Amino acid sequence: MGLQKLPPLIRQHQHLLQNHLLHNIRVIIDGYNLLTHLCLREDVQHGRCGGEYGTFARKCQSFFTNLKACNIWCFVVFSGASDSSDEKCNTNVDSHQRRIQLADRIAQGYTDQSIMPVLAMEVLKKVLADLNIPYVISDFKAGNEIVGLANSWICPILGKDPCYFLMDVKAGFLPLDALKWRNIQIRDIPDPHGKTALPCSRYFLSKFCMHFKVDKSVIPLLGFLLNNNDIIPQQGMSYATQNGNKNDISRICERLAAHKSLPEAMMKLLGYLPMDQRIKIQENIQQGIKSLQPSTACNLAAYFTEKRLTSHPKISSETCFLPSWCYDSFRAGLLPNSIINVIRSRQVFTLVQIDDQSFPSSNDIALPLRCILYGMLLLPCSSEVEQIPTVMEYDRVGSKITCDKVAPLYEIPNESGQVLQIWNIEKFPAPRRRRFLLAALEVDTINYGRMLAVIPSIFQLPICVVVYWITNSLLASMTHARALLVCWILGYAKQKSSQQVPHHEDGHNCTDDPLGLIDWQISEAPALLDKFTEYIQPTFTSSLEETDPIYCFSQLQSCMKTTLQLNAALQHSFMAPDISVFYNGKQVHDMYGILDSLSDEYRNEWLETHLFDGAPTANALYKILSGFIQVHTSADIFVPDAPTEMS
Question: How far apart are the C-alpha atoms of 164 and 33, rounded to whole Å?
Fold first, then answer.
């Protein structure tokens, strides 16, 4: 059952939730809870298209803007590396299988549920950075550290994990589901800090204990029983529930109410178990109880106030140790958790996307990139090491989970032939690191390096990913690529028209743009958006009814995800792309439907004379981007006319 029945129980007893107006206060936010809430639980419809990242980004911006308007200072904490224990691995395997099956049902239209889009985390982190919202990555699961930080600062926690209902938060727990963040209210009380506030509900563990007459000290045992009743023998659960339903929380609370201390309750429970199982169960209980106890050493407070690390992730590796920059980048959210997991456990759970599961996994296309990444992370630091462990990858065949050993790749066609190592990456200059990543993406920098250099830096890494995608996909074509490029430009136009493009203090864009390809006239962006709205009509067939485009764009996102991991391991040698511009599923599929309905001869003419009419700079950007793809992917090379500045 887990803890999932706790929220309905709390809602059933409404007096346990206190109506509250939130304002003028610091709040600790569980980052993954917020991600799932804003991305999956509210009104962003990702459907079968792979993610509406632009819509999601705007929602995240609105969320934090409204909290700031009420003088609520947010501090976001994300969970970090995964637990590498066998029990946790088995749990992850079961969860991965369920996600695969859910994705299959969604693809067949049998459910209104959704799968987390694979690049959603990158979108949320960028919004946090753009709005200067401080955030940090915890070493491992963040719950007890979040509670420790909240109690240290005497401020509430905003989240939705049921475990917070069983943790003693001094200033209260605020369930995300009950926060009416769109409904800013004006208080009638004079306040020099402002009168605005957000309605919410506040929960205190003391009220729960009072209602169920349970001593607060035994609550961690309640959490363990709820979350682990599958490993407790029937005799133990019979004790806990008095032979009732083991999922009956009220009955378990009633039984635990007879004990005034945690040791007393544990001894009573263990007394019901066979002698040969008591030691093992006791160890499990003690370990489970730790996860529900607040951290007493508040490492996160030092990070938020001084940017000082007081602990390092415990990387369990007998052969290699990470340099200090990796710890700093990991803590700051710049080095993905997946990299730490590869080093610690040699296990990778690949992406689950909504596509036709009669096709091979959409992750297969990025396998060569992942092998290069594993080579960067697992290359031996000493010649004394005779064998490097392979990486266990969990993916799918059809709708069934698979587990395969993947060998790291230690050589690619670059200057030296050898894969760069994360342990000494700092000694390589940025140009060398960029060449390495381009070689991994099969981009010809010898012949076309100058052409890449004139592309605005915000588009350089994405365009190279598209080259790799088109080159290695059996189904993706230039029509798919053109639809994507047009939507990049439309996404940038939306940012331009809403003044969301980042600028330096002198007013120039925060990106290298030698030809001025994104320095548009004021009128270009609105004109382009109007044209797109005009042409997206029901007369054009959406590609969402076809399996090939859905599968192709899933492959694209898999390539981008792995490339972002490589770029992070290379200390971000390329400017990170704006994912809210890079991919917006419904828009991309609609544009593909338009272009696919046109003849090959008419397609380019339609783009230039219709969609880009009145937007010459946008048209020039499109030509440069599409030309770069074509020179890498087509024997019939078409190099577009360069803008005047190139000649």
Answer: 11
Work out the angle at residue 559's Cα, subtended by the Cα atoms of residues 554 and 560, and round it to the nearest 5 degrees: 95
One-letter amino acid at 159 equals G
Note the helical H segments in 405-518: 430-440, 445-453, 457-472, 478-497
Question: With contact defined as beta carbons under 8 Å apart, do 412 and 419 qualify?
Answer: yes
Residue pair 75/34 in contact (Cβ under 8 Å)? The answer is: no
Residues 6+ positions from 401 with CB-CB distance below 8 Å = 93, 96, 97, 100, 394, 395
User: How much of the chain is in helix, strand and coil states, percent to nearest 5?
Assistant: 55, 10, 40
In this prediction, residues 260-282 reach a mean pLDDT of 82
Mapped onto helix, strand or coil, the DSSP state of residue 137 is: strand
Q: Which amino acid is at 61?
A: Q
Instruction: Name residue 449's amino acid.
Output: G
Contact of 131 with 327, CB cutoff 8 Å: no
- Cα–Cα dist 120/5, whole Å: 27
Report how many helices (DSSP H) and strands (DSSP E) the chain contains, helices first: 26, 11
CATH code of the domain made up of 6-211: 3.40.50.1010
DSSP category for residue 514: T
Lowest mean pLDDT among 95-109, 234-248, 626-640: 234-248
Give CA separation, 209 vs 143, 218, 487, in Å.
Answer: 20, 10, 54
C-alpha dihedral (158, 163, 165, 169), degrees to nearest 10: -60
- How far is it, in rounded angstroms, from Cα 475 to Cα 79? 37
Residues β-bridged to residue 135: 76
How much is the average pLDDT of 331-336?
A: 92
CB-based contact 1:249 (threshold 8 Å): no
Name the phi and psi angles at 600, rounded to 5.
Answer: -60, -40
Taking the C-alpha atoms of residue 18 and residue 175, their distance in angstroms, rounded to an integer, is 11
So where are the chain's domains?
A: 6-211, 216-290, 424-646
Average pLDDT value over all residues in the chain: 84
> Which residues sit opposite 401 in a β-bridge?
396
Spatial separation of the C-alpha atoms in residues 234 and 513, rounded to whole Å? 67
Instruction: Identify the H or E element spanning 105.
Output: helix 86-107
Give the alpha-carbon dihedral of 633, 634, 640, 646, to 10 degrees: 50
Percentage of the chain lying above the pLDDT 70 cut: 83
CA distance 593 to 424: 47
Radius of gyration, alpha carbons of the chain:
27
Q: What is the phi/psi pair of residue 105, to 5°?
A: -65, -40
